[in-house]
Amino acid sequence: MSKHNTFHISRMSNEQNDWQRGLIFYKQELQIHNHRLSDVSGMYNSMAELKENVEHFQNQFIVQRNNIDQLAHDIGSFAKKVSSEAITMAQHIYAETLVLHDALRDRYTSLETTINDLRHEHNKFLAKYI
User: Residue 115 and residue 117: Cα distance in Å, rounded?
Assistant: First the structure.
């Protein structure tokens, strides 16, 4: 971390905007995967193994949508905090706020990895039945 006590907000605003766009994309993607799951479930309604997997993916889609919503909310709240600091500190923020930004980045990266893994797992599952 830098030795300075403040950082210019332009260094993080683009990244936060990218996260918000990414979260919107992932939420839409989960909706598409859920529709594909419903299609396969309807075609092979009576298979017990399929039902277990369908339930697993439905639960995962719900959990990840909730994670997306929570992270989007936290990013929005953080953006308000940054804006408030920027107003009082001539477009700069406290170093502690940068630490919070880094934590949000870690959460976004982790969520992105989880969703990508889920996508691959789901596509592999669908390949058996389509």
Answer: 5
pLDDT by residue (tens digit) across 99-116?
999 999 999 999 999 999
The DSSP secondary-structure symbol of 46 reads T
Whole-angstrom Cα distance, residue 66 to residue 57?
Answer: 14
pTM value is 0.88
Q: Please name which of 97, 107, 101, 119 lies closest in space to residue 34, comparing C-alpha atoms.
A: 119
Please give the Cα distance from 83 to 12 (Å, whole number). 11
Q: What are the tens digits of pLDDT across the range 62-95?
A: 999 999 999 999 999 999 999 888 888 887 788 8
Cα-to-chain-centroid distance, residue 17: 13
Q: Where are the domains of the chain?
A: 6-129
The DSSP symbol for 90 reads T
Residue whose token pair is 């075609």: 43
